[in-house]
Amino acid sequence: MSASLSRPRVGVWLIGARGSVATTVVTGCAAVSAGLHPPTGMVTETPAFTGSGLPALSDLVFGGHDTLDCPLPKRAEALTAGGVLPPGVATAVAAELAVADREIRPGGPTPGDTRSEAELITAFAGDIRDFVHRHELERAVVVNVASTEPASHGPHAPLPASTLYALAALRAGCSYVNFTPSEGMHHPVAAREAERSGLPHAGRDGKTGQTLLRAVLGPMFAQRALTVRAWSGTNLLGGGDGAALADPAAAAAKNAGKERVLADTLGSVPEGEVHIDDVPALGDWKTAWDHIAFDGFLGTRMILQTIWQGCDSALAAPLVLDLARLTARAHETGLSGPLGALGFYFKDPVGEGPSGLGEQYEALVRFALSLGEGKEGRR
């Protein structure tokens, strides 16, 4: 993705850079920049964001960390075979994928890795600084799109990998986005460093499917004064995320954000749970089912059921591009700390802000307007 020399370029450093989401991000950015596909799903490409001063898609430069060694062009071929990417696109942008793949560095910690936490943070930060320096980037955003981690246990537990990467981002002077349910910047150690750094950050856990519907339906029930008695759900998914979420501790971290949306929009958490089942045959496709029991006038009992079927990578990729552009621009205008106005994109957003999708969108548009005006300070 070449850019005009007169325009500053912005780095997007992906944690989990060879995963399905990251591969779709890089492929999609190249395809949209080349005019091969429209920017479907990218909110930042709608008229409300025209004057926000966001970096152009063609000015984004990709790199990242991963523990896998499958090259991005090969990964894109596999996603094409699975129906995630449309035929021909991976071939059309093979050069861009190869360029991004050369910027991916070994992640960690891996089995047998003897480096201390401090050494890992130093190494990761060094990789990011080197990337920014070699490409003469104006700034970079670190975005975590790796598989979900189990929550850490106790103050003396080792720092999770997501937090090591978050600390490395801060040390490298980069803004940070956590698109996963993993701790990342939420860990107390990283939260303290983030406050001291003055860098903007956003997260966590991208809102792509089932919770997106919950953020719409929860306010609907509350605004219509309908009493929700129970709200149960099931997720069937495969791929790396399905395998990771087969761990009950990782699934619990994922479900916490889904419950928060209901608690915030309904005022309480109704009966019912969300079950996550790993179905490897589904690959990157997922099915989410919700069963909502509610009371109407005179206590009449009623049921609403929803079924969401989609491709997780294709749902996530445009949001990751949105977030990278918005966070980079926020950094450029001098914003710092948690970017609560980006709650539109997350199940468990940082900072203060509404939980209903409509209100979140209004806050996002106001934020975009402030970016265009170049306002400094926190919103």
TrEMBL record:
This is Inositol-3-phosphate synthase. It holds the Pfam family Inos-1-P_synth. Belongs to the myo-inositol 1-phosphate synthase family. InterPro entries: Myo-inos-1-P_Synthase (IPR002587), Myo-inos-1-P_Synthase_GAPDH (IPR013021), NAD(P)-bd_dom_sf (IPR036291). Residues 209-313 form the Myo-inositol-1-phosphate synthase GAPDH-like domain. PANTHER family: MYO-INOSITOL-1 PHOSPHATE SYNTHASE.
